[in-house]
Design brief:
CATH topology: Rossmann fold
Order of helices and strands: EHEHEHEHEH
Helix content: 40-55%
Number of helices: 5
Shape: globular
Oligomer: single chain
């Protein structure tokens, strides 16, 4: 699993929670770092903040979906600009689930347990 958030504390906290729940997790702090990591790591699940400096979570999600079509994608955001970005991705043929930030760990784990797949 790959977790991306430009707020390092959030990415690291999610990684700890998910690791404690039995997932193998790597976390990065930008879309660019995520794309670089994809050269040597194939996630089965991507969790990404939508609004980040540089590449958005949606841009990373599109790259991941193109490279690894079986990878499940879960986005989260606390910002209103997310709706416009999601609409743009839908227009390009990509549909992603989104959770509102802050997401409670129990809700996140429930969502992930229903989404896990083999890559």
């Amino acid at each position: 699993m790959l977790v991306i958030d430009d707020e390092q504390l959030i990415a690291d906290t999610l990684a700890i929670i998910l690791t404690d729940a039995g997932f193998e997790v790597r976390s990065v702090y930008s879309g660019e770092q995520a794309v670089e990591l994809l050269q040597r790591f194939r996630p089965d699940i991507l969790i990404a903040d939508v609004i980040m400096f540089g590449m958005s979570g949606i841009e990373v999600a599109v790259i991941v979906r193109n490279r690894f079509p079986m990878c499940k994608v879960l986005l989260f955001s606390g910002q209103a600009a997310t709706a416009d970005l999601l609409q743009q991705s839908r227009a390009q043929g990509y549909e992603f689930e989104i959770l509102a930030k802050p997401v409670h760990p129990t809700d996140l784990l429930a969502q992930l347990r229903g989404q896990q797949c083999s890559a």
